[in-house]
Amino acid sequence: MFRQGNQVHPVCLLIYVLLCQLLFLLTAGSCNTHSLMYTYTAFSKSVGLPGFYTFTAMGLLDDIIIDYYDSKSQKKVPKQDCMNKALPQPYWVEGTKARQAKQKWFKRNIKIMMARMKQNSSDIHVLQWRHGCEAEKQPGNSSLQFTRGIDMYSYDGKDFISFDATNKVWVASSVVAEQTKRKWDNEELIHYTISYLQNNCIQWLSAFVKCRKKQLVQAAPPKVLMFAKNSKVKKNVVLTCLATGFLPKYIELKIKNEGRVLNGADRVVSTGPLPNGDDTFQRRDDIEIFRDDLATYTCEVSHSESNLHINSTWGKFDLIGWVSGGLLMLAVLMLAVLVLLVFLCKRRNCVFINIVFSRQQDSSEDVL
């Protein structure tokens, strides 16, 4: 089902690429952790689908795309306002040259991989590279301390080779990758890889975080919405706390009952941070309670990057508003439909309306 002979089905490769990008966006983290990652994806030939190019590269700051390049445009471009304003034009010119060189490198090496694995050119193959660094904000200041470096390659949806920074060696994930490991396990390349991950990458990460901080000061503050709605169980209601429009994605959202923080054991359901269409994020937490529950429920939201701190309580009117409001809307709707029918029928001399009116007139004159 998933393979054609010994080859991975091209549709599966596309699904794998999409899942990898989604995983980068939804990876959990902490509000004190920042990351700078670069991803490269190269196909052995054109996929023939809109939005998929033979080569794509992008930079991600805390899982948000900050720069982009593809084989069609042949140009590295900023994807965030702060990147466009803070970095001079020569940065993008040199970045374009570097991405073009990397595109040629991938084209050459994907052919090497196909030859090494004795694969033919009629099938689609994909080579991917992901590298970058993670750092933790130090207490008391805004400096970042290196915590982890990532440098890994995959081929046709499987791990190929990755760098082990602790032991300072490349780790082959298959027999075919052993040849690459022997070539890359040299002192010069290992020293360069460690230096980039622990120094150059952290320097760029710090600069980009500061750049985004200035952008956040000018941005609209996140919004917090609290409401209640009917449950599928008539005697219950669902309380919802929704925070949206925040960046980066790390946010603290707590639902409390009389001051006690509720969690999954209390049937709290959370979406976790989800991307909006404008590069910001949203998160929604729900809890289902009895309609006649008299306890005090509060929603506490904190987002340090935007200085957002909210602690609000659901009023009792919130719990019945959806019921009474719904009934009121239904009554208004029915009345409007009735008035409209009467109006249309009167204009068209509706028989039913004439009969009703004539009966009303007759009943007023007749005495039993």
UniProtKB/TrEMBL annotation:
A cellular component annotation (GO) from this entry: external side of plasma membrane
Keyword Signal listed? The answer is: yes
Q: One Pfam family of this protein, by short name?
A: C1-set
Record-linked InterPro entries: Ig-like_dom, Ig-like_dom_sf, Ig-like_fold, Ig_C1-set, MHC_class-I_related, MHC_I-like_Ag-recog, MHC_I-like_Ag-recog_sf, MHC_I/II-like_Ag-recog
Domain Ig-like stretches = 222-311
Q: Which GO terms describe its biological process?
A: immune response
Matching entries from PROSITE patterns are given as: IG_LIKE, PROKAR_LIPOPROTEIN
Q: What is this protein called?
A: H-2 class I histocompatibility antigen, Q9 alpha chain-like
